[in-house]
Amino acid sequence: MNTIDLLQDLLQHEMMLQTMYNKHVIEITNPEARQLFTQLRDTKLQNLTQLQQEIKNMMRQGKTI
Question: What is the pTM of this model?
Fold first, then answer.
């Protein structure tokens, strides 16, 4: 398995976590808990964006290691 494959697997995992946190944001009524899950979801979104950019850069450069 090369680096791009690993990053794509990580990207899928991060997407799953963001979906889970978003589900909790919708369902939770406690304001403090909702805020925590909102922050976690937003952090996952930043991670997703960074991973997507890194994968794009590596593919553009032809790196697979």
Answer: 0.80
